[in-house]
Specification:
455 residues, alpha+beta, 4-stranded antiparallel β-sheet, two-stranded antiparallel sheet, 8 strands, globular
Length: 455
């Protein structure tokens, strides 16, 4: 037996093992279509490379050489490193939180806030009034109403609401009382401690960046501070993310999605408050930015902290989990080591060609177009009225775009091999779109919720 036939046989065995692993992983991920796809593709491909060793083929050595050559060619084409050229442009202007749909939805008709806002933004009145005619988020009259998941989500949001009063407690008085007891610590040690501790508390990714002016909202859009100019003088910002469960998100846009979303807003809110309290107890001013109590635009801060990019769907795309995360920020003056921040043009390039989120969006709120100049920034922008309008009909926060995104697959060997290819080659990125569609479907079916989730 020639060395070429032996090498081909070894590759065939490795391919068989890999595809068997992919089948098992897919079944564990409850992706039956993917499992069958790997099975159907894996067996023939493995057999082709092993077959020359059987001796049944004439010119087996030549066949083995051809097969090895094809493999080298395909791998070379798919993984040949080539830098992506997509660029990220920093925002020129601050965002006014009062213009965000979450804030506009809270306006009570006939109130002074309502009148003041729509006098300033008459272009929003008609759209918002149409949305207000819908049942509303977590409403019993919503089309996806399910008392189990909806009430679970409400309970989580109630606890989050209780956390908000702790997010920006008067830091000056607390810190001044501890000024003599300020913990003098090197930035490297403090950053390492916070990173390790936050991971222990359930955080997936951790980053630090300088707090920029464009990170901050211009005005507060929710709560008792509504309408106030955002005053935030902290020097640094810590950004953390937590994972939203893949299985729970696979039922999107049903009630389990908003249940999981609320749970992770709660989980990350608790961690953010813990870090904020720790910094204050150490003598440093700090403020947590959690759901319903933001003074910063979390995805922008996270992007600058090196945790990901802003993708087509307008959400932070992390390299490990895509947009299947929730974010919180802790601003502070504590000495910290800044994370390395570099634009990941490969994510932007993939989003440019994929468009899967736009295809499945029930409200057609996600653009199919390339990034454009919006308020001086080259980016994608969703139609927030269409998106939130759908939420107000179904009662959930949808999440369909997040659930089907190829980056949102679980963080394991199988999907991480694909992520490596995505970061390497534009050809692989384009091939990955085709492969993901073939294996999981261009428009994957919405899965049926498990029995325990439904009353």
């Amino acid at each position: 037996m020639s060395c070429f036939i032996s090498i081909a046989s070894v590759i065939g065995i490795l391919l068989f093992v890999f595809f068997l692993y992919a089948v098992v992983i897919s079944f564990l991920e409850k992706e039956k279509r993917a499992a069958y796809s790997f099975l159907i593709a894996g067996i023939p491909l493995s057999v082709i490379y092993i077959f020359p060793a059987t001796g049944f083929l004439p010119y087996g050595n030549v066949v083995a050489i051809v097969l090895l050559g094809l493999l080298v060619l395909v791998m070379g084409v798919l993984f040949f490193p080539y830098p992506a050229k997509e660029k990220y442009f920093k925002p020129l202007n601050k965002i006014d939180e009062r213009t965000v749909m979450f804030s506009r939805d809270l306006l009570i008709k006939g109130s002074e806030r309502y009148k003041t806002y729509y006098d300033s933004h008459p272009e929003h009145r008609e759209k918002d009034e149409k949305i207000r005619k819908n049942p509303g988020l977590l409403s019993e009259k919503a089309s996806f109403y399910n008392p189990a998941t909806f009430n679970a989500a409400k309970s989580n949001f109630t606890v989050v609401e209780g956390l908000r009063c702790m997010a920006d407690t008067e830091v000056e008085a607390k810190v001044e009382a501890k000024v003599e007891a300020k913990v003098e610590v090197e930035a490297e040690k403090l950053t390492a401690f916070l990173k390790k501790w936050s991971k222990k508390l359930g955080v997936v990714s951790f980053g630090v960046t300088e707090l920029q002016d464009y990170h901050k909202y211009s005005h507060v859009g929710r709560g008792d501070d509504y309408g106030e100019v955002v005053e935030l003088s902290h020097k640094n910002a810590i950004v953390i993310t937590v994972e939203m469960d893949k299985d729970m998100m696979s039922y999107a846009p049903k009630g389990s999605t908003v249940m999981e979303s609320a749970q992770q807003y709660l989980n990350i809110g608790v961690v953010a408050i813990q870090i904020k309290e720790f910094l204050q107890n150490s003598g440093y001013p700090a403020q947590a930015h959690i759901d319903g109590k933001y003074k910063v635009v979390c995805p922008l801060v996270a992007r600058d902290a090196g945790l990901g990019e802003i993708g087509r769907m307008g959400l932070l795309m992390t390299p490990e989990l895509g947009a299947r995360v929730r974010i919180a920020v802790i601003s502070t003056d504590a000495p910290l080591v800044l994370s390395k921040s570099k634009t990941d043009a490969t994510v932007l390039d993939f989003c440019k060609v994929c468009k899967k989120c736009a295809d499945v969006c029930p409200s057609q709120a996600i653009s199919f177009s390339d990034r454009g100049d919006i308020d001086g920034v080259v980016r994608w922008q969703i139609n927030q009225e269409a998106c939130f309008g759908y939420w107000s009909k179904t009662g959930t926060d949808c999440g369909r775009c997040v659930s089907v995104c190829p980056y949102s697959h679980p963080n394991n060997l199988l999907h991480n091999l694909v992520r490596t290819g995505l970061k390497t080659s534009p050809i692989f990125r384009r091939a990955a779109v085709v492969m993901d569609d073939a294996i999981y479907g261009r428009k994957p079916k919405v899965k049926k919720e498990q029995e325990w989730m439904v009353f």
